[in-house]
Design goal:
The structure is a single chain. Strands 1, 4, 7 and 8 form a 4-stranded mixed sheet that branches. A 4-stranded antiparallel sheet has the order 3-2-5-6, with no helix packed on it. The protein contains 2 helices and 10 strands, in the order αββββββββββα. It is an alpha+beta fold. The chain is elongated.
């Protein structure tokens, strides 16, 4: 009978000790938060593939085909977020992540970045200059790629 009592008391003591340790561990863990939202333009069109970057964490995501993004498992605090998309002005904003909660943050981007023209020039190996060269009014030269394609049998446009 004494052995059963001792075993029971040992089991009770062990259970109390383990529960206290687990409770202390849970108290020390901060609840992480989430931020999610949608990237749209001024006309409410979704922007799939927009880049969303948190500087402090050196991590980023891209928006899905419907413009939605999600950052999970973020420690509570304030972060600087940069949002960019080709052809639009980038946006930088500060967000505060609440502990154990989800922050909904939609971002509106404005058109504004105009891409510049790219001119590629060249000649075939052994050529000194382009055979279909035309002079532009401001002194530059331009090579007609379509005319060149007709000169080379494998590059003919169909």
């Amino acid at each position: 009978m004494k052995q059963i009592l001792r075993a029971f008391l040992f089991l009770l003591l062990f259970t109390a000790t383990v529960n206290t340790a687990i409770a202390d561990e849970k108290a020390n863990v901060t609840k992480q938060g989430t931020v999610r939202g949608r990237i749209i333009d001024a006309t409410k069109q979704t922007l799939p593939g927009a880049s969303i970057y948190i500087e402090k964490l050196h991590t980023g995501v891209t928006s899905d085909v419907n413009g939605f993004y999600t950052f999970s498992n973020l420690d509570p605090g304030t972060y600087t977020v940069k949002v960019s998309y080709v052809g639009y002005s980038p946006v930088e904003l500060k967000i505060t992540i609440p502990a154990g909660r989800t922050l909904e943050k939609d971002v509106v981007l404005n058109e504004g970045v105009e891409l510049q023209e790219v001119v590629v020039g060249g000649a075939f190996q052994g050529q000194r200059r382009c055979p279909q060269l035309t002079e532009k009014p401001h002194g530059d030269y331009e090579c007609n790629v379509w005319r060149l394609c007709r000169l080379v049998p494998r590059l003919q446009h169909r």
